[in-house]
UniProtKB/TrEMBL annotation, chain A:
Compartment(s): Cell membrane
Major location (coarse): membrane
Entry protein name: Ribose ABC transport system, permease protein RbsC
TM region(s), chain numbering: 6-29, 41-62, 68-90, 97-115, 144-164, 193-214, 220-239, 246-266, 272-289
Keywords: Cell membrane, Membrane, Transmembrane, Transmembrane helix
From TrEMBL, chain B:
Record keywords: Cell membrane, Membrane, Transmembrane, Transmembrane helix
Primary localisation category: membrane
Protein name: Ribose ABC transport system, permease protein RbsC
Membrane topology, as annotated: Multi-pass membrane protein
Location of the protein in the cell: Cell membrane
Transmembrane segments: 12-36, 42-60, 72-104, 116-136, 148-166, 198-216, 237-260, 266-289, 296-315, 327-343
InterPro entries attached to this UniProt entry: ABC_transp_permease
Pfam families for this protein: BPD_transp_2 (PF02653)
PANTHER family documented for this protein: ABC TRANSPORTER, PERMEASE PROTEIN (PTHR47089), GUANOSINE ABC TRANSPORTER PERMEASE PROTEIN NUPP (PTHR47089:SF1)
GO molecular function: transmembrane transporter activity
Length: 308, 371
């Protein structure tokens, strides 16, 4: 048993704790984006949906006193905004990437506007399960605070992995995203399926936002999201459009996101901003390593404008 | 027949503006509804936006002050758009451009005349922006990395780098409350335009837009870029250096955003600090899309968006609306602009009809001679 108080062990434990704590928004947003992209569309607006979800989740939890009502409200707001993206991008000549950027701006603007009265008050947060009462190490104990939303996210990853592979629904969605002409020839309602996929993706991203405001960091303010919604899009590319790989990737990104605070906890304070940029650098590095100019990525839905 | 043909010609000229006008109307309607639902006086609010943007000389001044960096950051979107790339990382190029420009005076002797110092600062800012956004273009062309995502990631990285350097190694020890770089000496600051209270950056912004428009529309290289943007494959087939053209378009756009950062430092802030990150890079995306990536239209659209942003404080003071009100308005505008693009097909059909009508009076005498 290594010394539980050496800085290195503390750092590793902090990273492990961070991976679990920070990864949940990445996980939900990337699962949502994965679903959307399987249908052949890209929704860059999930960043805006994440922020809207965080705001509405916090507001609903404050107004009703129930954090689960907040989670539901966040999901519904995400569903609504996802629906908007799906509908508008079904119009001819509307680029899904460009409208995603617009949705990023609109979602953030609406959240900041409507969320102004909720910055001050304290809403009830979502309690975590304390699974670490047996351990004497405070860091390990801290790491074993598992939030129910994380558990739901992990379960969702497994369900989606199975659902996309083995259910009629999943196969239809993949067909629509891989080869629209075939799907159309087989009589599937292409547009409707894509709208549903985008809306459900928005629902997941909204719940990811609720995690930000109700669990960690656990309050609503305008600097809450630092681009997790957008990084999740890159994460899906890294995960090659596989929900289970999204889970591992989200944990990795969570650990990268926890690097700054973890280093601070062992006394490394210089270069704070640089360590906090670790997830962005990691995302970029992963994209540079994984992408190739001359062919589309293995596993990429054929109709996707993102990888062309 | 004659008046009909003439109206057809007028309508033909107005045709491209239809989606934009409808988007503006749609935005105003939705924005009014948004305020109406909350019981806010929406007519007053819309009136105040116009008043706060263009209602007085003070309003104009504040609008122009915001419009000048927007023109340059919008070019950071519009120029890569010519080769078909959607780059949204102008904020990072602006931050690094401003920072690099702020370092230049520290390395020059204090007696350097502004005639030498200012161009050097501009060069440093443009170079930094060009390298940053050029890297995005290079990653796209040679590695196939999606430029929209990578440019935003690069912007986040640039902002982290900016904060690290400004609050660390480059920090002026005298800047206590607000970490800043060493102040630019007064002799190297950029003054206001004659007769105005707006700095020279406005003129350079307008000139850059006009220059970009001439370049894109009339130069061979600009034409080649538009070919690449129209069809990558066709451009490759006719032997155009697609990768280099895309790289150049990105680097030029980045240089424009870097120049915006330099003007913010040398004409407004006086040093590189967090006030530089005011969101001009992100608002520039909206400006470029509103202008349909046309550099000349950017001048007008920058005034419009600059005006909306300038009116925020008036809305806050008079109606007690949150400062995010202008953000909502911009978001609605952006969404509307894209959604009304859907009319494009219909408009193409109308154009054909109108062209036929416009030509009808030219055909008429010919038919008579034949008869």
């Amino acid at each position: 048993m290594p010394d539980a108080h050496s800085p290195f062990v503390i750092l590793l434990l902090s990273l492990f704790a961070g991976a679990i704590r920070v990864s949940t928004p990445y996980l939900f947003v990337s699962l949502g984006e994965c679903l959307t992209e399987k249908g052949g569309r890209v929704n860059l607006g999930l960043e805006g949906i994440l922020v809207s979800g965080a705001m509405s989740g916090y507001a609903a939890s404050f107004l009703t006193g129930s954090p689960w009502a907040g989670v539901l409200a966040a999901g519904l707001v995400g569903l609504l905004l996802g629906c908007l993206h799906g509908l508008v991008c079904s119009l001819p000549r509307v680029s899904d990437i460009a409208f995603g950027i617009a949705l990023m701006l609109l979602g953030t603007g609406l959240a900041f506007y409507l969320g102004k009265p909720f910055i001050e008050p304290q809403a009830p947060g979502l309690q975590s399960f304390d699974l670490g009462t047996w351990t004497s190490s405070p860091q390990l104990h801290n790491a074993l605070h598992i939030n129910p939303l994380f558990v739901i996210g992990v379960a969702l990853a497994f369900v989606l992995q199975w659902g996309l592979r083995a259910t009629r629904w999943g196969m239809t969605l993949r067909l629509v995203g891989d080869h629209a002409e075939t799907a159309r020839a087989m009589g599937y309602p292409l547009t409707r399926i894509r709208i549903i996929a985008t809306a459900v993706g928005g629902f997941f991203a909204g719940i990811g936002g609720a995690y930000l405001s109700l669990v960690y960091p656990g309050s609503w303010n305008e600097g809450l999201s630092s681009g997790q919604g957008l990084m999740a899009v890159a994460l899906v590319i890294f995960a090659r459009w596989q929900p289970l790989r999204c889970l591992w990737a989200a944990l990795l990104f969570g650990a990268a996101g926890a690097l700054g605070p973890a280093l601070q906890s062992i006394g490394v304070t210089s270069g704070y901003y640089l360590y906090n940029a670790a997830p962005y650098v990691l995302t970029l590095a992963i994209m540079i390593i994984n992408c190739r100019p001359d062919r589309t990525l293995a596993g990429a839905p054929g109709e996707l404008s993102l990888t062309r | 027949m004659r008046p009909h043909a003439q109206t057809a010609r007028i309508l033909l000229a107005l045709l491209p503006a239809i989606p934009t006008v409808l988007a503006l109307v749609g935005t105003l309607v939705l924005f009014s509804l948004f305020l109406l639902v909350q019981g806010q006086p929406f007519l007053d609010a819309v009136g105040l936006i116009f008043q706060g943007a263009f209602g007085s000389s003070f309003a104009w001044q504040s609008t122009l002050l915001r419009a000048s960096p927007l023109m340059l950051t919008a070019l950071c979107v519009a120029l890569p758009a010519q080769v078909g790339l959607i780059v949204i990382g102008g904020e990072g190029a602006l931050a690094l451009g401003g920072m690099c420009a702020a370092i230049v005076p520290e390395m020059l002797p204090a007696s350097t005349p502004w005639l030498i110092a200012t161009p050097l600062m501009a060069l440093a800012g443009m170079l930094a922006g060009a390298v940053w956004i050029g890297a995005v273009g290079a990653l796209r062309q040679w590695r196939g990395v999606n430029e929209t995502i990578s440019s935003l990631l690069m912007a986040y990285i640039a902002i982290a780098l900016f904060k690290h350097l400004v609050e660390g190694p480059l920090r002026d020890p005298a800047s206590l409350n607000k970490p800043s770089t060493l102040p630019v000496p007064p002799s190297m600051m950029i003054g206001p335009l004659p007769g105005l209270e707006v700095h020279w950056g406005l003129l350079w912004g307008v000139l850059a837009c006009i220059g970009a428009w001439v370049f894109v529309k009339y130069s061979t290289k600009g034409f080649a870029m538009r070919v690449v943007g129209g069809s990558n494959r066709a451009a490759r087939l006719v032997g155009l250096p697609v990768n280099l053209l895309a790289l150049a378009a990105c680097a030029l756009g980045g240089a424009a955003a870097g120049l915006a950062g330099m003007f913010e430092v040398a004409a407004v802030q006086g040093s590189a600090n967090a006030s530089l990150l005011a969101g001009y890079g992100y608002a520039g995306i909206l400006v470029a899309f509103a202008a349909r990536q046309n550099p000349l239209a950017i001048i007008v659209c920058a005034l419009m968006i600059g005006g909306i942003e300038a009116s925020g404080s008036l809305l806050q003071r008079r109606l007690d609306l949150p400062d995010a009100t202008t953000l909502v308005l911009q978001g609605l505008l952006f969404a509307n602009l894209l959604a009304w693009e859907a009319l494009g097909g219909r408009i193409a059909a109308w154009r054909v009809q109108l062209q036929a009508a416009a030509l009808s009076d030219i055909n008429l005498p010919m038919e008579q001679t034949h008869a």
